[in-house]
Design a protein that fits this description.
Shape: globular
Strand content: 5-15%
Helix content: 55-70%
Number of helices: 25
Distance between the termini: 73 Å
Strand order of the largest sheet: 4-3-5-7-6
Length: about 575
């Protein structure tokens, strides 16, 4: 494409360009990889149950449990699946892909009207090329949908103060936060109110009473629609539902015991976890920021510590409103998620757009004033991508066998299995050739710009290269890993060999003691029954190879088990082989 055409797209159609790039980066690949984690099939199975039973309030999944989370993301998955009549990997991941694309467009429009446009555009480029956001946009989970609702709601609250000085209450705000609450629970409104309340206090423009009324009216109006679902779900689930709600939403936050629920809340991490995951989530751009530290001149603060703190505080308060709001949102969200015992990297995603604004400003400064640093970063990226490209070509031509090469360094079965899957993914196909052609184009562009002296073009060449590396990972590497290590093949194998149906297939469902087989549950049609509670006379039983001996020992005097089939490969979502057996009550 000619430079003039690129300039036209960038200057005249920036939002359309970002939407197209986002859709191209994920839509072709979300249908090509099986579910290979436990989270995706667990969420997709809820949509399966909705379509099959017609219960869109509190459907039963995985034997006898109901969904842990509110149903907004599952409603969207089921709605996307209605035209074809069943839930697939594509339709389960589609809500996240759409939310991801909408988030990029919303952030670009919001920042583009309030800061230098190049700064806003780079911030969005950082977002769709950073690891955490890109990964969340391709998975059948609730996190991307939640992030889009929360960020869009925060932006609307900012505009409410900016345009109307908090007069009235735009209907879009409670609707967006209602969507957030229906996606993940009360955190969908508590966290945004916390952010906005701190922002209003730092503006020093409104009285405490006015701020309190603003937050109260917003909170109450945002909870009206979700409460209709909570009441209906409580009618269906009773006290068991209330226990799960309390554990998921308050047990995690206040470090309470999960003794009243049949699973471990999990993800318990220390204080520094959020900072580490932020650094990892913004890769590879964190690498550029890390390089920049070596050229910084550190000076001892002048005057006393108290004076230094006051000067820093005055500097923060003197920021223009958009940067003050972004700073408050970034700090408050990260601080909020330091408090719970449960921590995950995806919890911090609502802070990413606001942090990206400051990283964009920093990277543009480095590009303009420290050109060698930008070129070193681009050189490292180009070298790494070149190694990946050459490795792919060698595997494609049969010159290199990744599994054989890895066997010289490890004997771990799961690792060798992964290398074998990657090697097979490099076999020639139309999609593989297209991805490698794009990666080659990005590499040639980077090498060309490295030979020139226009640093801003070097930065855009780096963005294009990272974009193509994501295509390489999603379209080739991860596609191979997902398809080779998923539960689909074993599900197809045992379904064809044995008369499995919705009445005779049993598993254990107690996460305190056993591993749940979420991948097999999805690929076998969400037809599991709870062996422990139903105590059936006869049927088929599935368990991973670590749990199977425990079950045999526990029920040795009650049941006879006959082992029928063991999966040939370690299933990725279970991280173990799975055993199918036939049982009869003595």
């Amino acid at each position: 494409m000619r430079t003039s055409a690129l300039q036209y797209l960038y200057l005249q159609k920036p939002v359309s360009t970002v939407i197209f790039v986002c859709l191209f980066s994920i839509l072709p690949w979300i249908a090509t990889g099986d579910f290979s984690t436990k989270g995706e099939p667990r969420e997709a199975a809820v949509a399966v149950s909705m379509l099959e039973t017609g219960n869109w309030t509190l459907p039963t999944v995985y034997a006898d449990e109901f969904a842990y989370k509110p149903p907004m993301a599952h409603w969207l998955m089921a709605a996307c699946s209605l035209p074809q009549g069943y839930v697939s990997e594509l339709t389960a991941r589609l809500p996240s892909a759409i939310a991801y694309t909408a988030l990029m467009a919303i952030v670009l429009i919001f920042f583009g009207r309030r800061v230098r446009f190049q700064e806003a555009f780079i911030a969005v480029c950082l977002l769709f090329t950073c690891v955490e956001i890109h990964r969340a946009g391709m998975t059948a989970r609730v996190d991307m949908v939640l992030t889009t609702f929360m960020v869009a709601g925060l932006i609307q609250m900012y505009r409410w103060e900016e345009k109307l000085s908090l007069k009235g209450l735009p209907v879009g705000i409670p609707l967006l936060f209602s969507g957030a609450v229906l996606t993940k629970g009360p955190v969908g409104i508590i966290l945004p109110l916390f952010v906005f309340g701190v922002y209003l206090l730092m503006l020093r423009k409104y009285s405490l009473l006015r701020i309190f009324k603003t937050l109260l009216y917003t909170g109450v109006s945002s909870l009206f629609i979700p409460m209709l679902w909570y009441i209906e779900a409580w009618k269906q689930g009773g006290n068991d539902f209330l226990n799960v709600v309390l554990a998921e939403n308050f047990g995690r936050f206040f470090h309470l015991s999960e003794a009243n629920i049949s699973y471990d809340l999990g993800h318990k991490e220390g204080f520094w976890y959020n900072f580490v995951t932020l650094a990892a989530g913004f890769m590879p751009w964190t690498l550029l920021l890390f390089f920049s530290l070596f050229g910084v001149s550190w000076h001892k603060p002048q005057g006393s510590l108290g004076r230094w703190v006051r000067n820093a505080w005055d500097t923060i308060l003197s920021l223009d409103k958009i940067r003050l709001f972004s700073l408050v949102a970034s700090v408050c969200i990260v601080f909020f998620y330091m408090l719970p015992s449960s921590k995950r990297s995806v919890y911090l995603m609502p802070a990413y757009p606001f942090i990206a604004l400051f990283i964009s400003q920093c990277i543009l400064y480095l590009t303009e004033h420290r050109s060698k640093l930008t070129r070193v970063f681009a050189g490292v990226l180009t070298a790494v991508a070149s190694v990946a490209f050459v490795t792919a070509l060698l595997c494609m031509t049969g010159t290199v066998d990744l599994a054989a090469l890895a066997s010289h360094y490890t004997s771990k079965t799961s690792t060798l299995q992964t290398f074998e899957a990657v090697g097979q993914a490099f076999h020639p196909s139309v999609s593989t050739i297209i991805v490698l052609a794009l990666l080659l184009a990005a590499l040639l562009t980077s090498y060309y710009q490295l030979s020139k002296k226009i640093n801003i073009k070097m930065l855009y060449a780096s963005i294009f290269l990272i974009f193509c590396v994501h295509l390489f990972i999603d379209g080739i590497v991860m596609r191979g890993i997902r398809n080779e290590n998923s539960s689909r093949a074993f599900a197809r194998e045992i379904r064809g060999a044995y008369p499995l149906n919705k009445d005779n297939l049993f598993v254990m469902n107690n996460l305190h003691h056993y591993t749940n087989l979420y991948g097999l549950n999805f690929y076998l049609g969400n037809c599991f029954h709870n062996f422990e509670t139903e105590q059936p006379q006869t049927g088929y039983f599935l368990a991973d190879e670590r749990d199977y001996p425990k079950v045999l020992e526990r029920y040795a005097g009650v049941y006879t088990f006959e082992e029928l089939r063991t999966s040939g490969r370690i299933l990725a979502d279970v991280k173990a082989r799975v055993v199918l057996s036939r049982f009869v009550r003595k």
